[in-house]
Design a protein that fits this description.
Layout: H1 2-17, H2 28-33, E1 40-45, E2 51-55, H3 67-78, E3 85-87, H4 90-94, E4 111-113, H5 114-123, H6 127-138, H7 142-155, H8 178-188, H9 192-198, E5 202-205, E6 214-217, E7 235-243, E8 247-256, E9 259-268, E10 270-271, E11 280-281, H10 282-297, E12 298-304, E13 311-316, E14 323-328, E15 332-337, E16 346-350, E17 356-357, E18 365-373, E19 376-385, H11 393-405, H12 408-433, H13 447-453
Parallel strand pairs: 13-17
Antiparallel strand pairs: 1-2, 1-9, 3-4, 5-6, 7-8, 8-9, 10-11, 12-15, 13-14, 14-19, 16-18, 18-19
Helix pairs in contact: 3-6, 3-7, 3-8, 5-6, 5-9, 6-7
Length: 454
């Protein structure tokens, strides 16, 4: 049942949110005006897959600890009991010695639940939690766990991402794209435990067999109002990451007034951007800038209304009408700047026929249309006839006759028929001249023949 549910959830997400539409180029100028610090950026609606901002969104880059989102997915897909106790193996600690890893202070032999380890993984980005969970899920077979991570990527259609470890330390063959990270976090948020964990600012790790209880503080400063430069009231969760190769990275989910977005910033800076003597995380700043602008300026609007006439096409052989009018097949909504209405959007016909033949029924698809805003395509839609056009038999016969009589084939055929008739007439007259009168044969005699007869 768990496997079936996982497949169902994946299918729903693939259908509903992963078909990202192209970024609206109308917002390119907005991006240029923003102070953005990341090499790769993406802001996409998790409601309908529309991209608001995109910069190098399909560029492969090191993911750092954003890798742990995929690690968590594998754990949640394969662990039905998050209260199960896990004993931390020594090998899962020792393999991180000398790596400069982000650690959560977990000790060899310490016993924690799967849920506790997930909190360590997502809140303080504990690498020893990643190795321990990978060991637990795979039965100690690290290659198997990594294969499971890549299977998740393949299943979600993330063909531009690949993993070699569960924690995110730099590896030349470990990379993601901003587009793929948006898909990963969206799928991860479908698990209630993941959604709950990443929304936490703190978590009290219960007392274990080796340590007293302690409080974990989330590295996601966008949740914490104490960090004024980063805090964003719309953010509901996310994951941080950083390595020397990956730079500063962040993926966030945000919601407000029924609108839901995923923001991704990869390979960003960590520098004093405002000259206050303190270095700032560029990935936090970029996600905040994109999200706050979008919630302030973007709204969902019916860009294609079934009652709106957007064009007309001549109709042949119809009774009483010479044209059919076209309207969108269904009402289509899109995220556009506030204040935009359907009247300010242009619908341009695609491959429209020069004319159509009656009969035409109301609702028949005639062609496609492009919904344009600021000179850019934001949607493609079906256009249908919004009237019935019944056929006129007399118009059909008259038009057909006219068409036949004016064709070069008919003219050649007529000439050939005329020539044939002339030949027939000529042959008939010749034959008639040779035929005897009243059926009797007469002999024409010369004068000498007449004398002889006498």
């Amino acid at each position: 049942m768990k496997k079936i549910l996982s497949i169902f959830i994946t299918a729903v997400i693939l259908i509903s949110t992963f078909c990202f539409t192209n970024a609206n180029a109308a917002y390119d100028d907005v991006m240029e005006e923003m102070k953005l610090y990341s090499d790769c950026l993406l802001l996409v609606s998790s409601d309908n897959g529309e991209v608001i901002f995109s910069k190098n969104a399909n560029k492969q880059t090191a993911p750092a600890s954003l890798t742990k989102v995929i690690t968590a997915i594998v754990v949640l897909e394969n662990c039905s009991d998050l209260t199960a106790t896990v004993t931390v193996p020594e090998s899962c600690i020792r393999e991180l010695d000398g790596t400069g890893s982000s650690l959560g202070g977990i000790m060899v032999g310490e016993q924690l639940t799967v849920y506790d380890l997930l909190c360590c993984l997502m809140l303080v980005s504990a690498n020893e939690s990643a190795t321990t969970l990978a060991d637990y899920v795979s039965g100690g077979d690290r290659a198997k766990f990594v294969s499971m991570m890549n299977e998740v990527a393949e299943r979600l259609g993330c063909i531009n991402s690949h993993f070699e470890n569960p924690h995110g330390l730099d590896h030349e063959n470990q990379y993601v794209t901003a587009t793929d990270m948006a898909k990963f976090i969206t799928h991860a948020m479908s698990f209630p435990a993941f959604e709950e964990i990443v929304a936490k600012k703190t978590y009290v790790l219960p007392e274990t067999n080796m340590q007293q209880s302690r409080t974990l503080h989330s590295s996601n400063y966008m949740l914490n109002s104490a960090y004024k430069d980063y805090y964003c009231k719309y953010v509901k969760g996310g994951k941080t990451g950083s390595t020397s190769n990956a730079g500063r990275c962040f993926v966030a989910v945000a919601s407000n007034d029924g609108y839901n977005y995923v923001a991704v910033a990869l390979n960003s800076t960590f520098s004093d951007v405002d000259n206050d003597g303190v270095n700032e995380n560029g990935s936090f700043l970029d996600c905040k800038e994109m999200l706050e602008w979008t919630f302030k300026n973007i709204e969902l609007v019916a860009v294609a209304d079934t009652t709106r006439v957007v064009g007309e096409i001549p109709v042949k052989y119809a009774k009483s009408v010479d044209y059919i009018t076209l309207s969108p097949a269904e009402t289509v909504y899109s995220l556009v700047p506030k204040g935009t209405n359907s009247g300010s959007l242009l619908v341009e016909l695609i491959d429209a026929p020069a004319s159509v033949n009656a009969p035409v029924k109301k609702g028949d698809i005639i062609c496609r249309g492009k919904v344009m805003y600021a000179g850019e395509v934001i949607k493609e839609i079906d256009l249908v006839s919004n009237i019935d056009a019944k056929i006129s038999i007399f118009a059909f016969i008259g038009s057909t006759a006219k068409s036949v009589f004016s064709s070069w084939i008919f003219r050649i055929a007529a000439i050939l028929i005329i020539v044939f008739l002339i030949i027939l007439i000529f042959r008939k007259r010749k034959k008639d001249n040779a035929r005897p009168v009243n059926g009797k044969n007469y002999r024409v005699l010369s004068y000498n023949d007449f004398i002889k007869l006498k």
